[in-house]
Amino acid sequence: MTQEVAKKTKLPTAHSPIRGDHPNLYSAIKNDFVKYVGGVDRESAHLAARNLQAIGIEKVEIVGDSLDTELGKLVNIAGFAWSIVLCKWAARLCRHFGADFGIVYEQFMESYNEGYGRDKPNVRQAVLKPIPGPIGGHCVIPDVEFLDKSFRNALTKFILNENKAYKKERS
């Protein structure tokens, strides 16, 4: 998409995904996350990086190109959506069998992360809370829908189908 903007405008163009919690977005961008920049060319990427640094964002990293940052953001969001689906599934499983969600999901995930975190920090798993209703946020489901339209696959279909079921489920 960034490439299309550059072709139409004939201007230096780069993509840098937004990551962080609302409403404290600027603080998160400035202090918590690496600000990845992918340009349509190296000159565009460096110009964008300099502009971000000029407004106080220090953790700026130029990556391959804009396609890398676009897909990186979408994959990151899809992974988060998948973690939400897993959490909600575990909650339903616990309700079905009368098990304690706090033990089955939260304690087991946390101790898994502690145990593997020492030697294998790359295998950490998200520990979330099951929030009733559909997956929230202004970007999670729209980004998964965009990915699904651009690259049809079982993962995004499953997330979207589960989310439809969550709209009916209010427990």
Describe, in plain words, how this protein is organized in 3D:
It contains 7 helices and 3 strands. The chain has a 3-stranded mixed β-sheet. It is mainly alpha-helical and 171 residues long. Strand 2 (35-39), helix 3 and strand 3 (60-62) form a beta-alpha-beta unit. The protein has helices spanning 2-9, 25-31, 42-54, 66-97, 101-117, 140-150, 154-168, and strands spanning 14-15, 35-39, 60-62. The chain has 2 domains: 2-64, no CATH class; 71-168, Orthogonal Bundle (N-(1-d-carboxylethyl)-l-norvaline Dehydrogenase, domain 2). 60% of the residues lie in helices and 6% in strands.
Low-pLDDT stretches = none
Radius of gyration: 19 Å
What is the string of SSEs from the N terminus onward? HEHEHEHHHH
Instruction: Kindly report the name of the CATH homologous superfamily of the largest domain.
Output: N-(1-d-carboxylethyl)-l-norvaline Dehydrogenase, domain 2
Q: Give the overall shape.
A: globular
The major pleated sheet works out as: 3 strands, mixed
The helix count comes to: 7
Q: What fold name stands as the CATH topology of the largest domain?
A: N-(1-d-carboxylethyl)-l-norvaline Dehydrogenase, domain 2
How many independent structural domains? 2
Beta-strand percent range: 5-15%
Strand tally: 3
| Average pLDDT over all residues | 94
CATH class of the largest domain: Mainly Alpha
Label the CATH architecture of the largest domain. Orthogonal Bundle
Q: What is the percent of helical residues? A: 55-70%
From the N-terminal CA to the C-terminal CA, the straight-line distance is: 39 Å
